[in-house]
Amino acid sequence: MSLSPAAHIDPIGALVFVLAGFGWGKPVPVNVYEASDALVVVAPLPAVQPEDVAIDLWPGRMRITASLRSAAPREYLMHEWSYGGYEREIDLPDGWGGGAEASLANGQLAVRVLPRQADEFTCSQCFLVHHRSQLAREKNGQFVCRDCAA
Ligand SMILES: [Zn+2]
Q: What is the rounded distance in angstroms from the CA atom of residue 55 to the CA atom of residue 72?
């Protein structure tokens, strides 16, 4: 069975509520589509530099964060938007999340989430993706890599 990526994405209303409750970065809207070799996530990130963007991958989940570099104090006449920071988490469909490549151009972030390979596993302790040769043990579907088992 193949599910549309859109079916897995959090309703943005719920996310806004969660983020507002914890005072994190501002939520960012995303577009997600499946290309032949990557799951593509596109988000507007105005006034953000590439070095300020972080992409975190967990099993089945990805987070985009963009830190706020500097906000010059101003006496605003109108103040309808802010320079970040930004944050967004989305669920990843099965089979994606073996890695990610990101690019930032014209105020738009594009993340290419790569497919997970059949010979890879995600460690349940460090949450990194490893090759099978690094598998130390598996119990009840929980994988542990050699580094974490040591
Ligand atoms: Zn590990």
A: 26
Q: How far is the CA of 45 from the centre of ligand 1 (A)?
A: 32
> For the segment 85-123, what is each residue's pLDDT rounded down to a tens digit?
889 999 999 888 888 899 999 889 999 999 988 888 888
Chain centroid to CA 65: how far? 8
- What ranges do the domains of the chain cover? 2-116, 117-150
State the distance from the centre of ligand 1 to the C-alpha of 12, rounded, in angstroms: 32
On whether the 2-116 domain is CATH 2.60.40.790, my answer is yes
Angle of CA points 47, 28, 76, to nearest 5°:
50
Mean pLDDT for the stretch of residues 123-136: 89
